[in-house]
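Protocol step 4 of 5: obtain the predicted structure for the target chain.
Materials: sequence only (see below). No template structures provided, no constraints applied. The aim of this step is simply to have a reference model before the mutagenesis design in step 5. Sequence pasted as it appears in the construct record:
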Amino acid sequence: FIAFLAYTFAQVVALFIFLIVVAVFGVISKAEMDDYLDQFVAPAIILSIVTGAIALVTLFGWWTRSHSARDILAEIGWGLGTRVQGITGVLFGLLLAGISLAISHWLVPITDDAIPDYLGRLMSQPGFDVAVAVVAILIAPFLEEYLFRGVLLSALKSAWGVSPAVATTTVLFMLVHLPQTWFYWPATASIISLALLASAVRIKTGRLGPAIALHLSYNLPIVVVYLVLGV
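Step 4 output (structure tokens):
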């Protein structure tokens, strides 16, 4: 949990410091402040994620003082796995993404009215699409799998057993994504399904690589459909 707290705390601190600095040195009126802050939403998001990653790397370096890096990496399942395992992860990710997209487009389509004002405002800002794409494809699959299915799952599995570890990391994973999904239950269900599938792949293969492949192949089609194609 130290790793989870370090990751989350670093993101929050970086985001608030960035926005406060922009507010103090760049604006005068509240209206101007709102407009100005909107321009910096995308870089603030990327900065907060990167800061969280730096916190994890720093924490990992601290751990290696009392444990060898090789032992720690082996414990969290660091490795690519076999080609078959990687392909299996990709197929599971694509399948889950396909189901999620089918539900959101045909079975339970989301309406503009359902999207909260704060999220709609963020989505309309210049550069937000690029920021989301960068985070979803280049950062989240690697960083989140390292944290949730690597560090947390391994530690909790050793302490509590497999089922409590999977349940706890799934709930934490859902809570991290809840600000983007709470208003649309199929999205929350997809996040939970992603966490459960990634956990199953991680435990079955003993490696993070297939779980990362699953996460990446889930995010990529959704980013392409919503952000690139705009449908």
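Step 4 remarks: The mean pLDDT is 79. The longest helix spans residues 128-160.
Proceed to step 5.
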